[in-house]
Amino acid sequence: MNALPRIFASPLARRLAAEKGLDLASLAGSGPHGRIVKADVESAKAKPVPSAPISGQAEAIPNTTLRKTIAKRLTESKQTIPHFYLSVDLDIDQLLDLREKLNQRAEGFKLSVNDFVIKASAKALRQIPAANASWTEDATLRYADVDIAVAVAAPGGLVTPIIRKADTKTVAQISAEMKALAEKARAGKLMPEDYQGGGFTISNLGMYGIKSFSAIINPPQACILAVGAGEKRPVVKGDQLGIATLCTVTLSVDHRAVDGVVGAEFLAAFKKLIEDPLGLLL
Amino acid sequence: MSDTSFDLIVIGAGPGGYVAAIRAAQLGMKACVVEKAHLGGICLNWGCIPTKALLRSAEVFRLMQHADSFGLASPNPAFDLAKVVARSRAVAAQLQAGVKHLLKKNKVTVVEGHGKLAGKGKVAVDNGPTLTAPHIIIATGARARVIPGLEPDGDLVWTYKEAMTPKGFPKSLIVVGSGAIGIEFASFYQALGCQVTVIEMMDRVLPVEDEEISALARKAFEQQDMKILTSASVKGLKKDKDQVTVSVEAGGKTSEIVAQRVLVAVGVSPNIENLGLEESGVKLEKGRINTDAMMRTNVPGIYAIGDVTAPPWLAHKASHEGVICVEAIKGLNPHALHPRSIPGCTYAHPQVASVGLTEKMAREAGHEVKVGRFPAMGNGKAIALGETEGLVKTIFDAKSGELLGAHMIGPEVTEMIQGYCIARTLETTEAELMQTVFPHPTVSEMMHEAVLDAWGRAIHF
Predict the structure, then answer these.
(1) How far is B425 from chain A (nearest CA, A)?
(2) Percent of chain B scoring above 90 in pLDDT
(3) Are A11 and B400 an interchain contact pair (Cβ–Cβ within 8 Å)?
(4) Active-site annotation holds for A255
(5) Distance CA A32, CA A43 (A)
(6) What average pLDDT does the structure give for chain A?
(7) pLDDT beyond 50 at B83
(8) Across-strand partners of B34?
(9) What percent of chain A has pLDDT over 90?
(10) Per-state percent for chain A, helix, strand, coil, to nearest 5
(11) CA–CA separation, B413 vs B391, rounded Å?
(12) B422 touches A: beta carbon within 8 Å
């Protein structure tokens, strides 16, 4: 597992390098037998750290703890999890109609497309439980509950509050809960129990007009669903060219825990629920 | 002299010069030392070593006086000054013979006489041959500094040399200067029953030490009935038969102190005279030879190490510089000597030892510091020894955990300071020092506790 060569560095050099965010492996040691000492860390600090030159002036925005956590977790995810990606187009005309009707008669709530996406994901995971999983060295864990994490842009960076047991909740309940969590997230008031855990994540950039994208898996989960914008596109129905509102979603999958077929089965179930949305109200 | 051509010539065979020559020999160089007086230099013949022999006699005498507190009897302890001095000289002679043997073993040629630069790559020896080598190290050391009005006369006004070989034991002694040399002699004479008065220009004794340690040292010396005048300067000196009157100005008032002898210990002057330095174009600064970190002077092929260069004037600094100098000549790319990693020791009673920055220096350098202290009173071994006067103080950078300085006063601290020197050289932080297992019961446990205390974790206090 640990094939990296041992780096010889003094304890003080190690601590100073950690403080400055310097990688010891990038330093040349001037101590006995090439040992990295304080002076080497200090002289490295004097040099510009980025390997590519920064053009013009740059503003240094100090990294918050949240920013560092995001950086660390995502780097680890992208470097250690073998991702694969599955994309599918969803016809959401029926969903938009249903949403419109429900919102017209609704009192005290306004459902978003994303609320339906959460509900559909949850129901699909209940149908294909093998996708509601995590990889560990000893075993693949399959979750009993369907807890859906939803990426929310907060001022300090991305957070993922959780709708727990989303498969058992109505779209209206999900909508209300999501609204409260998003407000807490934007105010920086999420509590650990609001965001810790979760078996599956949804990241939706549709409201920004993004057609499709591939998200980085939120460890230790095995799947993340990236949702693009709903837009009118030409489609072939039968042998006729027609117009439909389509939305492209891409599922990023940890191949260690979930194989391609399971991911495809999940997406098929999900697509069916979205395209025939009355089932989501049951 | 059959052969006068060498790879390296060292002028001066003190702890800088002879070590440089041996290191050169180890590296396969044909080395030569030129010495005009004694192998081993001042350190071994008139400094570090013979004073330790004297101080050992003083320590045994002090223990004899306190024999009763150990349940022993030593009625009417007395000393024979001639024998005390003879022992000290014998120790020096034994070590001088040792250095001679070491040089011979390493096939280093020893040339007796005064060596002098005589043109590029040449050293002329008085009444001897002219030697040649591409590399020449000046290691001529230093001598006691003389200040006007306090010129030593070898009789009433002493330097360390007379203080080390007194003809009779003075009833009273004035020591001018409270650095390590002054304080060690003050301690020796006071221990044997002489009334010692120390006169120091600065506001505290051992002025290079941490202020807290200076204050503790002063308290301890005064409890031994030593008289100490600080912020005081000698204004005049009147000699009579077998006694001296010194007028001292302190706090705007002048007073007169009478004593049988005066020891002047106000630093040293580098030996730069009659070496051909000027003719060779070697640059001097403030009366000493200027060098870079690899001990090179401004003239290629000429190097200088030890007391003839920058302070501190310490034998172990000279030896290290000798090694660095030779290794650099051989292209071994040695690390420069870190001035803050050179320990300093004073073998008085109590002993004082330190390395690195004092607390004040650390704060002035802008460090956010963590300071730990541990008193000998809290150490079991120190209590068993009956040596409960003492303190170990550590100074850390609060953020990085770097050991910036360590300051100790008390039993065997001169033997223990190397522990902190190793820590500094290895660049350990408080974490490794805390993890280190110190043997129980030892006085060294104070060193561990002083580290723990800097983080509020001392166990025994």
Answers:
(1) 9
(2) 97
(3) no
(4) yes
(5) 17
(6) 89
(7) yes
(8) B11, B111
(9) 61
(10) 40, 25, 35
(11) 9
(12) no
Locus of tokens 């129990």 = A193
* Average pLDDT estimate for B285-297: 95
Band (pLDDT 50/70/90 cuts) for residue A2 is very low
Separation between Cα atoms, residue B46 and residue B89, nearest integer Å: 9
**C-alpha to C-alpha distance for B46 and B55, rounded to whole angstroms:** 14
Query: Is B400 within 8 Å of A37 when comparing Cβ atoms?
Result: no
Across-strand partners of A232? A245
Answer with the residue of higher pLDDT: A205 or B2.
A205
Contact between chains at B432 and A11 (C-beta distance less than 8 A): yes
Give me the catalytic one of A255, A256, A271, A272: A255
Q: Select from B456, B441, B394, B390 the least CA-distant residue to B419.
A: B394
Query: Which residues of chain A does B400 touch, with a Cβ-Cβ cutoff of 8 Å?
Result: 12, 15-16, 19
A10 touches chain B (CB under 8 A): yes
CB distance B427–A11 less than 8 Å? yes
Q: How far apart are CA B18 and CA B140, in angstroms?
A: 11
For residue A31, list chain B residues with Cβ-Cβ distance below 8 A.
335
Most A-contacting residue of B335, B367, B397, B400 (CB-CB within 10 A), to test interface: B400
Mean pLDDT (whole number) for B319-342: 94
One-letter amino acid at B181 equals I
Pairwise CA distance, residues A179 & A186, whole Å: 11
Closest residue in A to B396 (Cα–Cα): A12
Sign of CA dihedral A73, A74, A77, A79: negative
What pairs with residue B352 in β-bridges?
A: B346, B409
d(CA B58, CA B290): 39
Kindly report the number of other CB atoms within 10 A of residue B385's CB atom.
16
Rg (CA), chain B: 23
Is B160 in contact with B47 (CB distance < 8 Å)?
A: yes
Q: How far apart are CA B290 and CA B305, in angstroms?
A: 10
Residues A86, A225: contact at Cβ < 8 Å?
no
Q: Which residue has the tokens 């825990």?
A: A257
Tokens 């101590």 sit at which residue?
A: A31
Instruction: List beta partners, residue B31.
Output: B8
By the CB < 8 Å criterion, does B400 face chain A?
yes
Question: Exposed/middle/buried for B87, CB within 10 Å: 0-12, 13-18, 19+?
Answer: middle
Banded model confidence at residue A1, pLDDT cuts 50, 70, 90: very low
- The one-letter amino acid at B73: A
- Say yes or no: B334 contacts chain A, CB-CB below 8 A: no
User: Confidence class of residue A190 from pLDDT cuts 50, 70 and 90?
Assistant: confident
CB contact under 8 A, B429 and A15: yes
Q: What is the pLDDT of residue A186?
A: 87
The predicted structure's pLDDT at residue A68: 81
CA proximity to B214, closest of B225, B224, B228:
B228
Using an 8 Å CB-CB cutoff, list chain A residues near B427. Answer: 10-13, 37-38
Q: How far is B7 from chain A (nearest CA, A)?
A: 26
